[in-house]
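Weekly structure sync - notes
Attendees: PM, LS, DV (DV joined late)
Agenda: review two folding runs queued last week.

Item 1: First target. Sequence and structure tokens pasted below for the record.
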Amino acid sequence: MTIVASPERRSRKQKPLVSESSPLLPEKHQDGEDCVHEGFNGASFSGAVFNLSTTVVGAGIMALPATMKVLGLVLGILLIIFVGLLTDASIDILLRFSRAGAAASYGGVMGDAFGRIGKMLLQICVIINNLGILIVYMIIIGDVLSGTSSNGLHHAGILEEWFGFHWWNGRVQILLLTTVLILAPLVSFKKVDSLKFTSALSVALAVVFVVITAGIAIVKLFSGTIQMPRLLPDIVDHTSFLKLFTVVPVIVTAYICHYNVHSIYNELEDPSEMQPIVRTSLALCSIVYITTSFFGFLLFGDQTMDDILANFDTNLGVPYSAVLNDIVRVTYVVHLMLVFPLIFFALRLNLDGLIFPAKKHLVLDNKRFILITAGLIGIVFLGASFIPSIWDAFQFTGATAAVCIGFIFPASIALRDTNGISTKKDIYLSLFMIFLAVVSSSIAIFSDINSMFKKN
């Protein structure tokens, strides 16, 4: 899955940049020469920004208002900004060490630094992280379309509200239809840039969700029907203190996009634009996250659910409340459906690379491509049918695989420094990222286990 690229990477128009082992699923002529996709001269700046932003802004946005319920608005917003800055730093490390080692995939950088074992560890973490995220997507789709129950309360789904309860709009049936009719066709694309238009639409739908949520909250705030929520966390004992750390994996997971950075980078017409693309995407996503967290928590307060979409099934106290509820839920479900193939893209490539490291590239073997795709879709479907809460899935993937992909692995690459390019700043920053990731994740896992035993 690793390419050995020329160190002089300027423009795709000047020289093809991919080879048979590239993670971008290139076509290959029979004479053995590498080539880019026919008629494809490289991805544009805007297309790359949309694809990377879509990778970032997925289901994580739905759980962020619930983190404000734990941290309060001040600490919550500061933590979102802080994790965004750390994400930018870790991606910068990945790109710089990729160029130095002539590696054009995340796995290639890990392989250069730690050999086959390092590459396998990354692949396993990407598989765990992306499987968890895709299961979360499907859980949310099921919650919105067919309804969900929490703490003895049933939140009706859109189809249940529109048509009443029938056998065909049950959770399993709806997820099966969504998988077969929508998700399966979308995950059949073999090139990231093929998804640039769906990515642009998904970002637009996320913005629609944010604008409507903010508008409702502002109207209710000026009408005096809601009050400003807590600014700081409510700490009464050591248990409530430990609970603060459980939100870290959720926010970390919301920013993980590292597994698609190289795929987008390798398809760029001008690879020198990658750093501005990353910063533009992260800035856009941070604004969306902060706005959603603030207005979502302002709107629902301590009644904010782990999946805030489930809150949009009641009278919001504003004109056309029912219509706005449906618009919010439908737009974000469509957004998740459009994000799904981008996350699936990296999942499929890493699973194939882990199981069949010596086989020819996945794009050249249609049978293997179809079998892996169908198997992964089936696993995601089963996971969404049996895992009850997105918070549980986010905490597990965030405290394990996500922190490794986002911080521990990039920091370890800089500390290993096989190409001798690490600065003192890189070393100090890497040590800080590893310390922060290990400590926060360990406390979060301990807090979750402690809460589980108390419930039992």
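Item 2: Second target, run right after the first with the same settings.
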Amino acid sequence: MPCTRGSESGFPAWNIRSPCEREQKNARLVIKILAAHQRTRETYGVKRLHSELVDQGVQITAYRVRVLRKKLNLRCKQKRKFKVKTDSKHHLPFAPNILKREFAISAPGKAWVSDITSIPTDEGWLYLAGIKELFNGKLTGYAMNERMTTDLIIQALFRAADRKLAEKGLVLHSDSKLAIRIINRLNKLGSVDISHR
């Protein structure tokens, strides 16, 4: 294996020599590219990142952005397409609508309403199940998870129940089909009626 020839006194000089002007400029550009990559939530590709840097007053070509991004191993996050998770054509039983849209309640602990919503985040979708007291409009229980499951609603219900705000004969109104799946579990407790529309 051939080795390069050079003087012995040349190596220490090469070793302590400061980086060339291009390397110094690349080091400054790397910092600006990383900052722009973070500022744009890691979603910009080469073209958009180049435009972002030019708008910030950085003199750089798109080719150089591409080369430095590759060197830094930066990748843009792909947004997932939103998929509807509800199935209105299910064959689950429907509970009677006990509330009949009468949301004016005279005392606390008589009626709760529940719902599930999806929240887009940088890491994907987050599902939030909430239980709200109809008397004063306060949130009595909630739960969050990356997946919309029966356990999500059960967690929210048990958090609300742990606060001991429920009265005997409590009505829980929900328009979520997942709530139907827990009817049997809650009816075993004997103190909860479930209304579903």
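Discussion on item 2: The chain has two domains: 18-72, 111-196.
Action: LS to circulate a short write-up before next sync.
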